Amino acid sequence: MSTYQNKFPVIAIDGTASSGKGTLAKKLAVFFGFDHLDSGMLYRIYAHEVLKKKIQEVDKIDINIELFNDKTLYESKNLRSELVSKTASKIAKNEFVRKQLINLQRHFADKPPSRKGSVIDGRDITSVIVPNAEVKFYIDASLEKRAKRRQIQLNLPEKEYEKVFYEMKTRDYNDKNRENCPLIKTKDSLYIDTSNISERMVLDIAIKEVKKKIDFI
Ligand code: C5P
Question: What are the Cα distances from residue 186, in Å, to 13, 106, 125?
């Protein structure tokens, strides 16, 4: 087990793709005045670079990719495409890639711009990145609901639903079954199924949990 100890309070959120974890993370950050880090974005930016440089063997990457030199990339719709999603999930298996990103994430946890705390969402935040986080959540929803959300988010026609469904199923499988830092629900994470409840309800449940675990003066 890692001995890393976060210096500011962290709300750690793991979960499946399109489960609503990102939306929850953003809203919690606003509510508590914390800073938000979408760790999936780091893997997507990495994947984008891999695609741009036409690196074929993504399983064998051992180069230090220059991240974050292009701020406009963050807003780029490209980063949410299915191709980038798929590539991100592939490179996420790579130990070298994960090691590079661990420090970036912990640095954010220890130096949040607000100097109050952070909300970090991803796949291994509760288990590996910030194992001593003050509050932990595991967010999930049925595959059908998540694929539908994704299809709408990407503005794709109805006929694309099945393709999105199967790509998401494969990505879930890869994320949960890889050797390095798989997506798991830790014992101390609160499980929230967002299939049939509103975003507002998810937020209310989460706010209650955070208030139980962190003392706000
Ligand atoms: O969260 P999002 O869907 O944007 O993440 C894209 C991919 O990046 C995931 O499918 C996963 O393979 C990888 N990822 C990861 N660990 C994280 C965040 C994302 O492996 N902490």
Answer: 11, 19, 10
Euclidean distance between the first and final Cα of the chain, in Å?
Answer: 31
* Ligand 1 contact via 17 beta carbon (within 6 Å): yes
- Ligand 1 atom with least separation from CA of 129: 21
Return the residue whose CA atom lies nearest to atom 19 of ligand 1. 40
- Residue whose Cα lies nearest atom 21 of ligand 1: it is 122
β-pairing, 118-122 vs 10-15, is parallel
pLDDT digit string (tens) for the chain, length 217 residues = 568 999 999 999 999 999 999 999 999 999 999 999 999 999 998 888 888 888 877 666 665 555 555 555 556 668 888 899 889 999 999 888 898 899 889 999 999 999 999 999 999 999 999 999 999 999 999 999 999 999 999 899 999 999 999 999 999 999 999 999 999 999 999 999 999 999 999 999 999 999 999 988 6
Rounded to 10 degrees, the C-alpha dihedral 25/58/99/101 comes to -30
Q: What is the pTM of this model?
A: 0.92
Taking the CA atoms of residue 113, residue 118, residue 124 and residue 126 in that order, the dihedral angle to the nearest 10 degrees is 150
